[in-house]
């Protein structure tokens, strides 16, 4: 114990002193490292003094470990100073090697981990890539090798992987050849230790189990038995090595440790408990993780272009293959037999071989062949199918094609020569493939290919020299001769064997009869009699070719004959299906029941799919038979057959389930019998509930059947189909979404059909909810759509989630909106925009374009209902709802959508205000206002131009010019005609007049809805007039709404209203307050973002609207005509609000520009316009004859006078000079007190500004 502590202290002291002596440590940023070293040295010194003074204490415990001194070395490794790092790593390596540093205590910085994990992580972190110091690299390799191979510490799982990965990366990144070679050798040694420990542990575990059993039986003799067990195990290991089954020899020292465990068993020393169900020990998991990682590394693709031998990709691939080959060649019994490792070989290594076995790099290809040979030698009993694929897709393919290189062909033939040199391997290939009813004829193809090569008839690649061709021919012939020798050698053994001799002769007829009986029983390959099911065997050793007294070679002759019959039958089937089936049944290779036929069609992959589809069972016709009993029998037979198919499952890239489930779909389409339709739905529901995990391509048919059921009027059919569909969406999708992705669109379409069945509104609402639920799957699992390629090869990977996921959901919701009644379509509309708002942040820009093409279909006139009542409801509800929702989405994703969809949205808003629907027209202007107010700050100059132009277009197209031109029906005897100023008339036919007369007692509103829009010019005159009046009224509404919209946009909502209220309140108070009115929210509007040109355009529209309203309000005769014709209710129509609000908004804009310092250049033009507009307005007021008309101008005059009073004296002079005569005339009217008060202030200021009065007098 003393010597151990002294050694430890010596290592620690020297390393710490060396670190402290380094000049780099004296720098300020290494103060923490310096302090940690000093503290550690002090503690070591105290410990050394105790060792020298205290007497030795006998104890079974080991000496004190160096774990508590790890901190200074950790800091040293993080110092990035090569000298300090090398010193630290060297000390750590020595401490681990001598068992002074075990790291067995928990790591205080990482719960659940041990200190050794942190130690290894620290060592690995010293490697920082190619720039890492070469000395540091070498020390890392030494330290990690010591850690992995040490008997004193335990590292597992991720820590082992990290150690291996670091050495792997050093090999790839290091520029030093010595370091590369050392790293590679270290990796090989690490892997040997990792896999050897796993094998040793299994040997120890088996020995302990056996000893436990013996102790229970013969307790007194357990020591003697233990010695015998160990000796037998050692002998078995040596014999195994000698036999070539494993290349790792258990050392006597390690086996001695088994004996010590057995001896200590009585005192309670036991083996570790297995950590999980998959692995019996953690060491197995370590080995598995390393093996899997190497397989994955070997699968990484090389970069395009000619391979660079120095590239990291190629060197990594070669190294990983070399290490895998080493593992396989040294594989022990556990690795060869444990299910987890066998599955890893199938799942990872065989996939890696399939990729690297076609590599154009000779070294990679050669390593792949070597690995395959090793698999063939050690693992063939588990890899029958994989070996078949490797022969077909690599060996034989290279030999048969002219595009393969000479080097590749040469290496393949060399490998085949090695395989064919072993008689057992040759016979195994023939028996397990050529005599297997479902396998390819590997032996036959191999012999044919070698014969062609030997004769010079093989595929010759370009550039092969005559000498190379001759070499290939010789090698091919040599390989053929080797096969013949093997066959002679193997058959010679059979004839020497006396038991086989008698079985082949005629001396024992009973055995021959027995073999014939067996052969007869095995004939029905796809029948229900006892069949020799070679597909059930999983390995190339399925048939024993080590002929003993019980083996019968004639059995394989029978199988080969059966296979030839089946192949001939398949050829016939692919030409004429019925003839092929008849032939196989006549030969006894196919049973006659539907189950036999189903098994044949399902299992036999060599059948032509088109011909196979034609065979699907008499069920299509019989299932549609009008006789229900016959149809029920057909559907039930089809159900049983389909269940057998589904129980087998379906391999990837196969679509056979679609074929055998298609009859259900056909019956559902053609048979209208509720009984049969109900039965079909129940059959499909049963399949879903019992076989969901096995269904792949069949989901499309299932959803097609439910889609057909969704439109049914039978409640039980719809309910069962919907319940099952809901189960699929909520449960099956959750567990097997990747397997159902191919039919996801069909599922959403099916739900859409349920939603559109008007007979079951509750189902409709629930179906929409499930569509919303589907959006969650698309959002949470986008990679499933990206990875799925199938028929989407022309779709970019980044767009697959849109094409296969989002677009079907949103499209089907739009179909629900366009097809369903109000409550259902409203819910569909809500959900559609919920999906956009919730998941739109994941959408690409071009996806939005596709999406809004769907959305704008809601407003498509061609798709709107023909009946006016339905059309009006549609516009008032759905179009109105959609309009606001579109603007919300546009605002939420403005940055993405502005450049893409602004034009479309403005066009849609323009469309809305053109419709003969007051609510929709109001909504159009309100939405325009919302879009601009919420996003105007982010508008570009171009966007503002487009927006202003949209408002101008709406203004121009909604001015109700016909109000001034309309005339009542003429007196020429044509009572059913309306006349306009241009002389045009609207006429009706005699038959239409008769219709109008017949319905004359009905309300005009009903008659308006009786005639659709496209018959407007031919409907009765009264209806024409009412429609015209309705349209004119809507235009008046739009004008008012648009005036308010412009006011709200420029000055912010409610600002102007507040200003009017304050002006009026100020006029009511003392005159001194009137000129001090301030509006705090003035700058919240978009005024500052609008250019002069844009403001003037808006101003022109406002004034044009004002002038039109003045013209109409002044035309008393025209108003009377319209009133008598029934336009706008009980009083004469007027446009007073339009007249005043348009001018008020125009004045606000002009006065705002007049005081804007940033627009001084336009002040002259603004003043000119102000003078003209205000003079014209006051003159118009003076001309008014109606008291109510003058009252409507009160707020406008207050606004005008208040604004003028606020301007500077210089400006006031110009304005007062222009308005003074007009305002004097106003005094003759009976004005309200508030207006008189403001006028008083105006006149007083005139006296002051023009020096008529003194300042004191005016105050």
From TrEMBL:
It is found in: Golgi apparatus, trans-Golgi network; Membrane. It comes from the Eukaryota. Residues 520-529 have a biased composition (Polar residues). GO terms for cellular component: Golgi apparatus; membrane. One of its GO terms (molecular function) is guanyl-nucleotide exchange factor activity. It holds the Pfam family BIG2_C. This is ADP ribosylation factor guanine nucleotide exchange factor 1. It comes from Xiphophorus couchianus. The lineage of its organism: Eukaryota, Metazoa, Chordata, Craniata, Vertebrata. The gene is ARFGEF1.
């Amino acid at each position: 114990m003393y010597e151990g502590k002294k050694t430890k202290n010596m290592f620690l002291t020297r390393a710490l002193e060396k670190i402290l002596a380094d000049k780099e440590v004296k720098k300020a940023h290494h103060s923490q490292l310096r302090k940690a070293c000093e503290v550690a040295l002090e503690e070591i010194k105290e410990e050394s003094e105790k060792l020298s003074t205290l007497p030795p204490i006998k104890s079974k415990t080991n000496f004190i470990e160096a774990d508590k001194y790890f901190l200074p070395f950790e800091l040293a490794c993080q110092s990035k100073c090569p000298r300090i790092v090398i010193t630290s790593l060297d000390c750590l390596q020595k401490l681990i090697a001598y068992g002074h540093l075990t790291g067995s205590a928990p790591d205080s910085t990482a719960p659940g981990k041990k200190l050794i994990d942190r130690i290894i992580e620290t060592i690995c972190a010293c490697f920082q890539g190619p720039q890492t110091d070469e000395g540091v690299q070498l020390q890392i390799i030494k330290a990690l090798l010591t850690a992995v191979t040490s008997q004193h510490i335990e590292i597992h799982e991720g820590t082992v992987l990290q150690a291996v990965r670091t050495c792997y990366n050093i090999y790839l990144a290091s520029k030093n050849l010595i370091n590369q070679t050392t790293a590679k050798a270290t990796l090989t040694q690490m892997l040997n230790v990792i896999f050897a420990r796993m094998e040793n542990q299994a040997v120890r575990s088996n020995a302990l189990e056996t000893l436990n059993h013996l102790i229970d039986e013969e307790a007194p003799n357990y020591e003697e038995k233990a010695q015998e067990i160990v000796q037998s195990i050692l002998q078995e290991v040596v014999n195994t090595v000698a036999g070539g089954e494993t290349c790792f020899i258990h050392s006597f020292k390690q086996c001695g440790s088994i004996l010590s465990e057995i001896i200590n068993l009585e005192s309670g020393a036991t083996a570790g408990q297995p950590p999980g169900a998959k692995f019996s020990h953690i060491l197995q998991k370590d080995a598995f993780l390393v093996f899997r990682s190497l397989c994955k590394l070997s699968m990484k693709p090389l970069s395009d272009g000619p391979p660079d031998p120095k590239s990291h990709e190629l060197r990594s691939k070669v190294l990983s293959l070399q290490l895998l080959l080493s593992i396989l060649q040294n594989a022990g019994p556990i690795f060869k037999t444990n299910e987890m490792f066998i599955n890893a070989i199938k799942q990872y290594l065989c996939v890696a071989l399939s990729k690297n076995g076609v590599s154009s790099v000779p070294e990679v290809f050669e390593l792949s062949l070597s690995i395959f040979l090793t698999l063939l030698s050690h693992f063939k009993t588990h890899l029958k199918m994989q070996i078949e694929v490797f022969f077909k897709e690599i060996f034989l393919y290279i030999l048969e094609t002219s595009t393969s290189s000479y080097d590749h062909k040469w290496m393949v033939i060399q490998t085949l020569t090695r395989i064919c040199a072993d008689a057992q391997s040759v016979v195994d290939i023939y028996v397990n493939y050529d005599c297997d009813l479902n396998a390819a004829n590997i032996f036959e193809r191999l012999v044919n290919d070698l014969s062609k090569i030997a004769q010079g008839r093989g595929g010759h690649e370009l550039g092969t020299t005559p000498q190379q061709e001759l070499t290939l021919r010789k090698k091919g012939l040599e390989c053929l001769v080797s096969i013949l020798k093997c066959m002679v050698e193997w058959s010679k053994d059979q004839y020497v064997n006396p038991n086989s001799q008698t079985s082949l002769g005629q001396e024992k007829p009973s055995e021959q009869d027995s073999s014939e009986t067996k052969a007869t029983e095995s004939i029905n390959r796809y029948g229900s009699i006892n069949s020799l099911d070679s597909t059930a065997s999983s390995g190339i050793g399925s048939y024993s070719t080590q002929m003993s007294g019980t083996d019968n070679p004639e059995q394989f002759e029978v199988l080969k004959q059966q296979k030839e019959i089946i192949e001939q039958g398949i050829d016939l089937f692919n030409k004429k299906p019925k003839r092929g089936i008849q032939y196989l049944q006549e030969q006894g290779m196919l049973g006659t029941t539907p189950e036999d036929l189903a098994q044949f069609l399902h299992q036999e992959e060599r059948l032509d799919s088109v011909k196979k589809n034609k065979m699907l069972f008499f069920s299509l016709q019989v299932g549609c038979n009008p006789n229900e009993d016959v149809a029920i029998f057909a559907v039930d037979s089809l159900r049983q057959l389909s269940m057998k198919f589904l129980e087998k499952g379906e391999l990837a890239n196969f679509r056979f389930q679609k074929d055998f489930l298609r009859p259900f779909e056909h019956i559902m389409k053609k048979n209208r019998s509720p009984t049969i339709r109900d039965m079909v739905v129940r059959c499909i529901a049963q399949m879903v509930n019992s076989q969901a995990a096995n269904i792949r391509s069949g989901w499309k048919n299932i959803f097609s059947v439910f889609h057909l059921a969704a439109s049914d009027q039978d409640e039980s059919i719809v309910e069962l189909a919907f319940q099952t569909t809901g189960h699929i969406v909520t449960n099956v999708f959750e567990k097997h979404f990747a397997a159902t992705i191919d039919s996801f669109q069909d599922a959403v379409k099916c739900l859409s059909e349920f939603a559109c069945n008007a007979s079951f509104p509750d189902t409709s609402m629930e179906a929409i909810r499930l569509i919303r639920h589907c959006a969650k799957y698309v959002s949470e699992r986008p990679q499933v759509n990206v990875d799925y390629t199938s028929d989407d090869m022309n779709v970019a990977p980044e767009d697959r989630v849109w094409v296969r996921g989002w677009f079907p959901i949103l499209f089907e919701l739009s179909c629900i909106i366009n097809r369903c009644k109000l409550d259902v379509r409203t819910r569909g509309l809500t959900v559609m925009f919920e999906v956009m708002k919730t998941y739109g942040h994941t959408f690409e820009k071009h996806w939005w374009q596709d999406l809004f093409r769907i959305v704008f279909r809601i407003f498509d006139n061609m798709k709107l209902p023909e009946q006016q009542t339905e059309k009006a409801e549609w516009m008032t509800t759905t179009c109105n709802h959609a309009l606001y929702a579109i603007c919300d989405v546009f605002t939420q994703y403005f940055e993405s959508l502005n450049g893409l969809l602004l034009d479309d949205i403005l066009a849609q808003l323009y469309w809305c205000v053109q419709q003969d629907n007051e609510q929709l027209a109001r909504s159009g202007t309100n939405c325009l206002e919302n879009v601009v107010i919420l996003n105007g700050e982010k508008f570009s100059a171009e966007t503002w131009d487009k927006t202003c132009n949209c408002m101008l277009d709406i203004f121009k197209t909604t001015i109700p010019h016909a109000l001034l031109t309309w005339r009542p029906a003429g007196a020429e005897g044509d009572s059913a005609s309306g006349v306009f100023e241009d002389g045009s008339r609207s006429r009706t036919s005699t038959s239409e007049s008769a219709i109008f007369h017949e319905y004359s007692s009905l309300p005009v509103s009903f008659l308006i809805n009786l005639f659709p829009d496209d018959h407007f010019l031919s409907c009765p005159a009264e209806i024409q007039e009412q429609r015209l009046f309705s349209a004119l009224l809507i235009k008046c509404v739009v004008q008012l709404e648009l005036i308010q919209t412009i006011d709200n946009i420029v000055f912010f909502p409610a600002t102007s209203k507040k200003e009017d209220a304050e002006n009026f309140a100020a006029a009511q108070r003392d005159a001194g307050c009137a000129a001090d009115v301030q509006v705090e929210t003035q700058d919240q509007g978009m005024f500052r973002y609008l250019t002069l040109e844009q403001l003037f355009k808006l101003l022109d529209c406002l004034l044009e609207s004002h002038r039109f309203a003045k013209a109409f309000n002044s035309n008393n005769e025209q108003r009377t005509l319209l009133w008598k014709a029934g336009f706008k209710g009980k009083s004469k129509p007027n446009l007073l609000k339009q007249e005043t609000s348009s001018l008020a908004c125009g004045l606000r804009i002009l006065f705002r520009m007049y005081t804007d310092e940033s627009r001084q250049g336009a002040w002259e033009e603004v003043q000119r316009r102000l003078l003209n507009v205000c003079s014209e307005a006051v003159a118009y007021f003076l001309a008014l004859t109606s008291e109510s008309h003058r009252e409507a101008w009160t707020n406008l005059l207050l606004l005008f006078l208040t604004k003028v009073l606020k301007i500077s004296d210089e400006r006031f002079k110009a304005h007062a000079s222009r308005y003074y005569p007009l305002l004097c005339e106003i005094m003759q009217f009976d004005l309200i007190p508030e207006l008189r008060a403001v006028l008083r202030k105006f006149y007083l200021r005139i006296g002051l500004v023009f020096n008529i009065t003194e300042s004191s007098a005016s105050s």
